[in-house]
Amino acid sequence: MFRSLMLPGIKFMGRLSYASKFSLISFLFLVPLVILSGQVFLAAFDSMKKTEREINAVHSVELLLAFAEELEIVRDISAAAVIQSDQALRDEATRLIGLLPQKTKTLIDQLDDDNLITTIEEWRSQYLGRFSIVGEQRQPAFLDQFNYFQTNIEEIYLTARQYAQTSGLTLDSDDTIQRLTSTLLIDLPQVEKAAGLGHSAGIYAFAEQYLQSSTYDLMNLIYDEILAAEQGTELVMANAEVTGDAALADNARNVLAFLNDLRMTLDEQVIMAASIERPWQDFHNYYLEASSVFDNMRGNAFPLLQTRLEERLAGQTTRVTTLVTVLLVTLSIIVYLYLSFFMSVRATIKSFTKTAGVV
Predict the structure, then answer these.
(1) pLDDT tens-digit profile of 49-79?
(2) How far is residue 35 from each of residues 180, 255, 319, 333, measured CA to CA in Å?
(3) Within 13 Å of residue 353, how many CA atoms lie on the same side as its CB?
(4) Is 169 exposed, middle or buried (0-12, 13-18, 19+ CB in 10 A)?
(5) Cα-Cα-Cα-Cα dihedral of 313, 314, 315, 319, to 10°?
(6) Three-class SS of residue 245?
(7) Dist CA 250 CA 28 (whole Å)
(8) CB neighbours of 165 closer than 8 A, spacing ≥ 6?
(9) pTM of the prediction?
């Protein structure tokens, strides 16, 4: 049975010369080795390219979030300007809206990904024109106007989240990276929205001066919104503390302190005040300075993401280099030994043939 199984192979090998037999066996041995080695190398190389995509995504997401922050300032001023008749407030809203086309162009010029650029261009054509305090963009009430502008901004946040997902950033297996991206793309924007609502409503109230009963109702609603956001900030603080970065944890606590200060400012100077004396410009400047805690939070979180990914990339690059070196050295040794063995056997056969001829 065994001989019958081996007979075709014996006949095939019998037709070949010794050199052909040796070459065939060597080829059949090396091909699987090369294929398996290539698969290992490609897996390591793909992992390295994935990390590079994530590093590039960090920069793009940072640009998108910075642009969203610019839009939020326009939203806060413009939502109040639509309802109130304060000319200085309307002039400031008009000025900020007029800067948006150039800021949008600057964002597009700074982006590298073609698909992302196309998405922002589509946003520009569909949503940028909706930032206006005149015409059909006007809404009947303050909250309606604020939410109308917020819809435009949510598209930018949605774009950032989708891009982070397609690039693999939000799907990263590293727990710290997951927490940082969740904070930057989900938790912190929700907190900033509540703070922005307090900012815009405060401008609305300070511009009105002599508050109507509906304005008091509005401010009490805003007070509750900020209070709820303070509770949501606890998740931001928890994620920051888990990363082990002391500066990030301090920034998260500063965000909570700012929300509390904003809420108390609105309570003392608007809701509980006997009269409104503070100019809206003064409150606006206070907010711009105090809300820098959000910039500090992002300014600390993005470098942490970048550093962690770059450290991983450096390790992956070292492993790929080592792997390639080992594979090349191993294959070279195998080829060298096979050739040496072949030449040795060939020399032995020649020696036997010469000896046989003499005999």
Answers:
(1) 888 899 999 999 999 999 999 999 999 999 9
(2) 39, 54, 19, 17
(3) 6
(4) buried
(5) 100
(6) coil
(7) 62
(8) 171
(9) 0.83
